[in-house]
């Protein structure tokens, strides 16, 4: 956590030093004779920044050094807030030709400069005190010398041989019975005792015997002074079973990685509690359940997370609002419709608000005044945004995942730093989208509702690394020019790493899927794809006449979602050679007409973890040989169940027992009656033949991993 705090201070320190340099050259500050004070702030902070870099190398900081570091960080934040406030007030008034307006603007700007001058003098005094404190307590000496690595006293216990231990058999047996009983409820089994009794040794022995019963496990000793970076790195490396972990990871990256990996798995919140406690100790983030609790904080709140839990009467006192004036990051969740007094958050840089469903519209037009905003995410279906947000010149991310009926600011493409635009709005691309050349992410606009000029302009966004477009038409008839323009634009986007075109819901070859023959010529003619570093490709509802061969050149591709009229053996061979492929979602509209064999000796699909195959019929044509897909964990299959009604027919794919790492089998029935209805009726309920269930259950029992088998679902065709 020390490293995290120093890194945070380094980030704001670099920003402040740059702004102080700009302020030194500002004629406005020279008019009020504060340039010397600014020079002092810059030079003193430069020296302190060097000392902070030394602190970053220390695993264990002296309490005095930690306290001094926190004071420097708080002062740095206040300096940056003062500079930002001055620039905002001094430039927020547009000059008009009239004499009265010019005089009024001069008075307003002069007042802003005088206020800033007083603040700078106060900041200079505080910086003097902090500098004197550093000399008085000799903080510099806290960073000298080498770091001593203290051996955890429990470490030798991890390597004791079980046979050499006395009196461990009965406790071990009791623990094994508790952990491996038939009760599937979550449980915590504490081992309590004084030091030296062998608690760690016992836990390690038990872990060695039970770990084979769990697909997700980790053994993480935690000391009284835990190192969060090491703990999270150890957990992630064990859960992912990686041989080597990059050293560049930080705590936030590791937490995100663990949350992603443990999604849909049953875990305890002990590590989360530990992280929150350490964050509280270092004033890194403040988590409260009601806004009024902020007033009880013993330090300035910079990052605030409020859990409303549906409360409609959330209020803030005047004292609380004053404390919130310096908040830089605000996250509100819990499903409430409470809107905080956003105008008081004049230094806000990050805003994330999750509204619950409501019949009334949520008015957020005031966000146009948050001039320092960098990140804005509003999770709500009916919100009112300002008509223009050009004043948010620092905004980098705008995310509106559920804004189906919300207005989109007309000048959104004029924002000079906008990098990520994620808006699910059921409307076409904004007019003039080609102006937003800083965009790296563009998601969820409707392709077929976009103008031809907007689709052509996509080719100007050469910095794009992620593009997701929605398609909701049943057929592409009449959209030939639009799709041809899309194909031409894609050829210019060489930096793409993620490309998705289709529905946002789960893939199914159905009556909603459409023929992509009108763009076949353009896409199939690519001998080499324009985006050689593509990692994810999802063309969910484009049913190609044949497999695009250029996909075989995407050597960085780990996710592929594709529909083809007919699949052939050589097509599987091309996909099987992709060296990075982890997920393959494949659909065929015409079924299998020839035997498709996924071999084990050829080394194909060596790293594939998830295989989803949607096929109209002839599932028995699909065969897995011994050694096929050696790392496959999840297998999803969808076939027409009526092909199995014939008792003489050979049901299902062959060789399922060869998938040695399989953990999950999901079988879905497909109703191929030619209807075009979008929702199944009660008559569509699939009754699974007993012999089909026996087939998959037998395959599951033949595998050492004992994968789960589930049936159900409709795929309406």
Automatic annotation (TrEMBL):
InterPro entries per record:
LRR_dom_sf (IPR032675), LRR_R13L4/SHOC2-like (IPR055414), NB-ARC (IPR002182), P-loop_NTPase (IPR027417), RX-like_CC (IPR038005), Rx_N (IPR041118)
Q: Which UniProt keywords apply?
A: Coiled coil, Leucine-rich repeat, Nucleotide-binding, Plant defense, Repeat
Q: Name one GO biological process term.
A: defense response
Give all residue intervals belonging to the Disease resistance N-terminal domain: 12-98
One Pfam family here: Rx_N
Q: What is this protein called?
A: Uncharacterized protein
Give the originating organism.
Answer: Eleusine coracana subsp. coracana
Instruction: Enumerate the GO terms in the molecular function aspect.
Output: ADP binding
Query: Which lineage do the record's taxonomy fields give for this organism?
Result: Eukaryota, Viridiplantae, Streptophyta, Embryophyta, Tracheophyta
Q: Which PANTHER family match?
A: OS06G0163900 PROTEIN, TRANSLOCASE OF INNER MITOCHONDRIAL MEMBRANE 13 HOMOLOG
Family statement drawn from the similarity comment of this UniProt entry: Belongs to the disease resistance NB-LRR family.
The highest taxon in the source lineage is: Eukaryota
Does the record carry Magnesium as a key word?
no
Q: Where is the NB-ARC domain?
A: 171-267
Which residues are in the Disease resistance R13L4/SHOC-2-like LRR domain? 326-678
Cited Gene3D superfamilies: 1.20.5.4130, P-loop containing nucleotide triphosphate hydrolases, Ribonuclease Inhibitor
